[in-house]
């Protein structure tokens, strides 16, 4: 699994011109599920996302996680992050999980994050979404499990 995480002051998702979710300060997570992922890799990535320290403390050091700032997380499925881009000029999506597995893992990822007491909003799996955000910093990290 891959999660591209961005520290945001706000983020939202719209589908067909209608806003379906939004958060204030927190984290936008673009999530890719790969065919080789397992329940263990899912749990490992949930832990990393929940505890990753990308928010500033009183000394402006990145020492706080999303829970410690009482922030929210907006999770958007993005299978294109699973692409193999090593060869040629067109991505190969062979590493990506099939849609049924990807949706199941996406939903479980959201449930596990929420189970940690984090306020979770989400996109719509498989939809053509418009994602709006204000990247705070900018701060962006690619996490893998």
The name of the CATH topology is: D-tyrosyl-trna(Tyr) Deacylase, Chain: A
**Which spans of ≥5 residues are poorly predicted at pLDDT below 50?**
none
- Beta fraction of the residues? 35-45%
CATH superfamily: D-tyrosyl-tRNA(Tyr) deacylase
Write the H/E string, N to C.
EEEHEEEHEE
Characteristic key phrases:
single chain; 145 residues; alpha/beta; D-tyrosyl-trna(Tyr) Deacylase, Chain: A; two-stranded antiparallel sheet; 2 helices; tRNA-binding; DTD-like_sf
How would you portray this structure in words?
Its EC number is 3.1.1.96, 3.1.1.-. Keywords: Cytoplasm, Hydrolase, RNA-binding, tRNA-binding. It is found in: Cytoplasm. One of its GO terms (cellular component) is cytoplasm. GO terms for molecular function: D-tyrosyl-tRNA(Tyr) deacylase activity; Gly-tRNA(Ala) deacylase activity; Ser(Gly)-tRNA(Ala) hydrolase activity; tRNA binding. The structure is a single chain. With 145 residues, the chain is of the alpha/beta class. It has a single domain, classed as D-tyrosyl-trna(Tyr) Deacylase, Chain: A. The protein contains two helices and eight strands, in the order E-E-E-H-E-E-E-H-E-E. The strands form two sheets. Strands 1, 2, 3, 6, 7 and 8 form a six-stranded mixed sheet that branches. It has a two-stranded antiparallel ribbon with strand order 4-5. The longest helix is centred in the C-terminal third of the chain and has 17 residues, at 99-115. The model has no long low-confidence stretch (mean pLDDT 97).
